[in-house]
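thread: overnight batch results

M.L. [08:02]
morning all. the overnight job finished for the chain we discussed friday. pasting input first so we're all looking at the same thing
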Amino acid sequence: MGWTVSHGAGCHSYASNEAFGRELSKVTTGQQWNTVAVLFDRRNGEPFPVTPADAAAMADVFEDVDPLVPEDWRPWCQRLAAAARRAHAARETWRWG
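M.L. [08:03]
and the structure it wrote out:
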């Protein structure tokens, strides 16, 4: 089981997403982490929406920290940034489910 993320991000297991969140928390500022933490604090697997404005802010964080995350996490970081950016550009809700 895992997250299916809209706008082309694809799927990632719950455990992998939680591990990615741990890696992000090591390289983000407090403000950056507060922006994206909602994506990694969910353990129940319930679908949830992200507003286009919040998606844009999250894309900014993913793009900023991409060079800082471990190499094996960079593709997921880049896919999340691109998908969040697409949701914002389309003025659509970015969905995690």
